[in-house]
Each structure stands twice: as C-alpha cells, then as structure tokens.
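Sequence only, no structure available. Ideas?
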Amino acid sequence: MKGSALTKLTRVLTHLATHPRHVGTYVTRGPLCRRSPLELGVPWFAQSAMDFLEGHVTKSMHVFEYGSGGSTVFFARRAATVLSTEDNADWLNRVRQALAQQELTNARLQHHPYDFHHAENFAQSSYLNSLPAGPLDIIVVDGMEEATQVRPQCFKLAETRIKPGGIIIVDDSWRYEALRTTNRAKSWREFRSIGPCRPGVTSTDIYFY
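Reply:
I predicted one. Tokens follow.
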C-alpha cells in the first residue's frame, strides 16, 4: 500500500498490536524471509484473507485463478481442482515444478501470453477469455498489474461465471476500491493485514455471491 516508510511501519506495528496472533507469522514469513510465497506454498494475499480461506475452502470446490504462484499450491492442497491462467512461460514452469515436487496433480496451468504494457485490446485477449464457462466456486483475480484496467475487466467477467454461494478474490484490492461499489455481490469484505514476504500491510477483498 502507498505511503512513506514511516507510514508503512506504523501500519505494521498497529496491525500486530491488534492482531498478536500474526506476530509469529510476520517474524517467520515477513520481509526477512528467505523463501518466496511459491516456496512457502501460500498466496501473496493479506494474511487475514488466508486465515479465512483456510477455513472456507473444501475438497469439493473448483478454483480458477488469473495468475499462478503460491496461491496455486495453496488451493491445490485444499480444493478439488485448480485451473490457473499465466502469461509468463518461465514463471509457469516454476509453478509447475513446485506442484510436481509436492505431488499435487489436481492443478492445471494454461499459458496465455499477453503484453500488459499495451492493454488496449485486453477484452479480446485469450488471457481474459480463458475463464471457463463455469459456474465456479472460487475465482481469483490476481496476476500481472502493469495496467490497472486489467483486473477490473477480469472481475467483471468473473461475476458472470461464479456460482451462487461462490466467492471472488481480488488481491491488492486497495488499488481497485471502485469495485466495492460496482459489483453484483451479496456482500464483500476487506481483509487488511500483513502478508507473506511483504514489508508492509496489504489488502485482499473477497466478494460473496
């Protein structure tokens, strides 16, 4: 989240003071952690969102992700299936290796390259339209962020494919606050907290349908 170094530090200290259960997590998985979220097998989400998801995701659920990584491993451990769309071939191979090392066979990765620096034609891209017809239990809107109009378009399409009772997850949601007032969800919740391998506080929004 934006702000000076002092502002970011204040946010962290305030969060840890009000959420002491996250102190140990911040020490072991905070900015000094030498392992990446992919190596840790966790999403680059707010920790409080992960806490919620650990109790929400079940083995009967089907997950789609815009953007792969530690979240792919996280959901593959907990859900029935995971389908992830990735634009970067090298990163896709790293995620595939991480899944293989943990013998997770219920996740499928699909490569849809796209130049996010020039996103004028994103609505026609195979990346955006790789989202299955659905309905899906969980859709994650994450991935590359070079163009800020990309995730809102992913979100709007996701709303047409999410099943009743499903959820859409928007990471780095502080960048996309407009979605909080332009959605079809029954409710939404902001999860603001520390996150893995981050020096500050971030936010992840979950929309409930």
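The beta strands are 62-66, 81-86, 107-111, 136-141, 162-171, 187-194, 201-208.
Hope that gets you unstuck.
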